[in-house]
Each structure stands twice: as structure tokens, then as C-alpha cells.
Specification:
This protein is α+β, with helices and mostly antiparallel strands. It is built from 7 helices and 4 strands. The chain folds into 2 domains: 3-98, Arc Repressor Mutant, subunit A; 109-186.
């Protein structure tokens, strides 16, 4: 197996939150795009999931901006792969990107649909809310299972996001139940 360094050209601009997610995961070690996808599924993917195509397009752009370095690894029985590592400029962009103010309002397609629910077929909003409740119950169960294996001392910040996820799931379940009662009353 041989490796070849790939060229990087540093450029400055603020990192998006998706870029921050990728940069942050790479602070934990060098990874390929495939490895990053697997890591995302088991960590930030519970609340921040870039599309596979978006991730693979993003990695070379981060290299071009000097935020990542990349090296090609030739493999004998598999296709060659590229491994990515965060650079010092990438660590700085991560810090700056994470410290940027968040937009005042997040876009939420589910809430937009509920808001205009009176323009939907009868039962469509109820079905959406029931699906949201069921997804939230399943999500809560997964998070509670993950929580059993977390070392809070070592992984405090990921644990804090897990707690937030649990509370959000519980709130979504409570809201769903209340909304379903109100819809039933209106019938």
C-alpha cells in the first residue's frame, strides 16, 4: 500500500454547519469518505445528516480551501481510497464556524405542513402527526439504549447532545399526543 499526498491551497471563508460537522468528526482522526458516512450514522447523524453526494462533493472543496489534507491510498484488492485529515486551518475554521450566531428561525417542513393542514386531505395531518409520534418514540428508545454505553466523563459534549435529543423526542411525543387529542375533538 502506497500513499501520495494531494495538493492543498488555503483559502478563507466561514465554514457552514455541515462543514463543521465534517471537520469536527475529522478532529478524531483521519478517515475516508466512507468512514465518515459510517461515523455520521453513529454520532451526529441523529441530528445532522448531510446527503452522501453532498459529503463526497464537500471533501475535495475542504481540501481546496486548505481545511483538510488528503492522501490517496492504493489498495491491492480494492479500489484506491482517499483519506482526509483536518489541518490547523481546518481546526480554526471549525472553531469560528461553530461560534457563528445561528439563524433566528430554523426551517421546519413538518411544521409548515401542519400550519397549512386545513388545505390537506382529511386525515393527512393526523397521519403525519401519528408518524412523527411513532418516529419520536423509536428515536427515544435508540437514544436511551446509546445512553447506557456512554462514559459521561470522557464524552461530555456528545452526552449533552444525547440529552438534548432525548428531551426533544419527549417534547415531540407530548406535542403529538396533544395535537391528536385536539384533532379528535375537532372532528
Amino acid at each position: 500500500m502506497r500513499t501520495k499526498p494531494l495538493r492543498t491551497t488555503p483559502k478563507t471563508e466561514h465554514a457552514t454547519l455541515t462543514e463543521c460537522a465534517v471537520l469536527g468528526l475529522l478532529t478524531r482522526g483521519e478517515r475516508s469518505g466512507y468512514d465518515l458516512l459510517k461515523t455520521i450514522e453513529q454520532s451526529v447523524g441523529f441530528f445532522w445528516t448531510p446527503a452522501k453526494s453532498q459529503l463526497y462533493a464537500l471533501l475535495p472543496r475542504l481540501v481546496d480551501r486548505g481545511l483538510l489534507s488528503a492522501r490517496r491510498v492504493e489498495q491491492d484488492k480494492r479500489p484506491d481510497k482517499t483519506l482526509y485529515r483536518i489541518t490547523p486551518a481546518g481546526r480554526e475554521a471549525l472553531r469560528e464556524g461553530l461560534e457563528q450566531a445561528s439563524p433566528a428561525v430554523d426551517r421546519n417542513p413538518f411544521e409548515l405542513r401542519v400550519f397549512f393542514g386545513d388545505h390537506m386531505r382529511p386525515g393527512a395531518v393526523r397521519a403525519m402527526i401519528e408518524a412523527r409520534r411513532d418516529q419520536s418514540l423509536a428515536h427515544l428508545a435508540i437514544l436511551e439504549e446509546i445512553e447506557q454505553g456512554i462514559d459521561v466523563e470522557r464524552d461530555l459534549h456528545p452526552y449533552l447532545t444525547l440529552l438534548s435529543g432525548k428531551e426533544n423526542a419527549k417534547a415531540a411525543i407530548r406535542w403529538s399526543e396533544q395535537a391528536l387529542r385536539l384533532l379528535e375533538k375537532q372532528r
